[in-house]
Amino acid sequence: MEVGMHTDSKSRAETGAESGPRGPGCSLRHFACEQNLLSRPDGSASFMQGDTSVLVGVYGPAEVKVSKEIFNKATLEVILRPKIGLPGVAEKSREQLIRNTCEAVVLGALHPRTSITVVLQVISDAGSLLACCLNAACMALVDAGVPMRALFCGVTCALDADGTLVLDPTAKQEKEARAVLTFALDSVERKLLMSTTKGLYSDAELQQCLAAAQTASQHVFRFYRESLQRRYSKS
Amino acid sequence: MAAGFKTVEPLEYYRRFLKENCRPDGRELGEFRTTTVNIGSISTADGSALVKLGNTTVICGVKAEFAAPPTDAPDKGYVVPNVDLPPLCSSKFRSGPPGEEAQVASQFIADVIENSQIIQKEDLCISPGKLAWVLYCDLICLDYDGNILDACTFALLAALKNVQLPEVTINEETALAEVNLKKKNYLNIRTHPVATSFAVFDDTLLIVDPTGEEEHLATGTLTIVMDEEGKLCCLHKPGGSGLTGAKLQDCMSRAVTRHKEVKKLMDEVIKSMKPK
């Protein structure tokens, strides 16, 4: 019974509203999310933004090595594997960003001396990779049932040479942009959880990008809500 | 008695100070530790600098070598940074391959160099497609007391300002490079990126230049790298508590003041150095 329900509860959710060619300005690419697609991890999710796709598996709360255990909260580990090649210094840096973002929202105090491992595999990279990783990680943590104080989402903004803002840029737009900013925002108050930037930009442009990202995050959170509603309404 | 309280409840101990708007070492919330810089101390390196931010000590040595330029950019040289956090500086690091913090710091410095365009890579090219300079920038932490990123950025900037590259000519007949060690030129440093780090406490308070203990108790960190025109090269916030746009604005203004302080200090030191 339990096993049957488990394999049948794979659910696909897609946005209808955001498909089609993008105008110059604030619109996101087509989203798609699939949860519970892997059998071994406690939670898994695959998140697609346009052609960028990331697959995430979450194991936890599980046993932790004595050397890594923290007496009053869960130890979060993040492993990011690139599509080709061995993980390098850039992957380590991204792992730290994703880990610290997850630590800010996961209620680690409810599971002391345990470990929660988030493993991300890049399936395809067509721009906005870090934002896609964050979204996939959030969906996988929800699928695993890890207690969290808020959901989080990743949004990427690109500023091109004349200062126009493009949300969720493709790989080509990122390469030609003057600056690329990636933000992680929480769902409760839209506060800035994580930020990493590339290129030169002014203070005013930063505030502009942050405001645009906060508006865009509403779409992402609405998508999370719809996909979860669809999933639980079936069973 | 205070020492006992500090061991048992470090966070509460700290909050008592924060309530009075100061910190255990007597600093205000927006005050930096005493910054000292020593340029050109390593004679075997092409450029070097030692920066002390309170107790945090970072030394940067720059060595220049020849290399073939990359095939997809035949008119560019390389700048290769590496941050090393040896077991010497703190008990939390073990010997062996670089740990996560060292790798993240190396990536951060590489991003700062790339984003701020501190050196135009075309300036490092000697002969397009054949020969270019590669600058190996090694940053080693000698004493870890928090705020490693600010110290590394400052050390890198000071060391690059100190680098002198000899003139190289390609001999037409033998196609070999001839190095003239008597004629040396300073690098063309285009911008001066300065990093300012903050720690977030209890999701609301922001303090500048955290020490090692403060970093451990903090719920989040934020590093802003600014150049002299007020443009941001890097806004590095690796997770932690959320921040509103208004709080970010306060951090920006503090970063602007810090930039002026650091630039003044560096200009004084460079002016006071005797020419080689």
UniProtKB/TrEMBL annotation, chain A:
Biological process (GO), any one: defense response to virus
SUPFAM superfamilies documented for this protein: Ribonuclease PH domain 2-like (SSF55666), Ribosomal protein S5 domain 2-like (SSF54211)
Compositional bias annotation for Basic and acidic residues: 1-15
Key word Acyltransferase present: no
GO molecular function: DNA binding; RNA binding
Gene Ontology cellular component list: cytoplasmic exosome (RNase complex); cytosol; euchromatin; nuclear exosome (RNase complex); nucleolus; nucleoplasm
InterPro entries per record: ExoRNase_PH_dom1 (IPR001247), ExoRNase_PH_dom2 (IPR015847), ExoRNase_PH_dom2_sf (IPR036345), PNPase/RNase_PH_dom_sf (IPR027408), Ribosomal_Su5_D2-typ_SF (IPR020568), RNase_PH (IPR050080)
Family the entry assigns: Belongs to the RNase PH family.
Name of the molecule in the record: Exosome complex component RRP46
Name of encoding gene: EXOSC5
TrEMBL record, chain B:
Subcellular location: Cytoplasm; Nucleus, Nucleolus
Domain Exoribonuclease phosphorolytic: 31-166, 193-256
Keywords: Acetylation, Cytoplasm, Exosome, Nucleus, RNA-binding, rRNA processing
Cellular component, GO, one term: nuclear exosome (RNase complex)
First-listed, main subcellular location of the protein, grouped into a coarse class: cytoplasm
Keyword Cytoplasm: yes
InterPro entries for the chain: ExoRNase_PH_dom1 (IPR001247), ExoRNase_PH_dom2 (IPR015847), ExoRNase_PH_dom2_sf (IPR036345), Exosome_comp_Rrp42_subfam (IPR050590), PNPase/RNase_PH_dom_sf (IPR027408), Ribosomal_Su5_D2-typ_SF (IPR020568), Rrp43 (IPR033196)
Pfam families: RNase_PH, RNase_PH_C
Example GO biological process: U4 snRNA 3'-end processing
GO molecular function, one term: mRNA 3'-UTR AU-rich region binding
Family classification: Belongs to the RNase PH family.
PANTHER family the UniProt entry points to: EXOSOME COMPLEX COMPONENT RRP43 (PTHR11097:SF9), EXOSOME COMPLEX EXONUCLEASE RIBOSOMAL RNA PROCESSING PROTEIN (PTHR11097)
Name of the protein in question: Exosome complex component RRP43
Protein encoded by which gene: EXOSC8
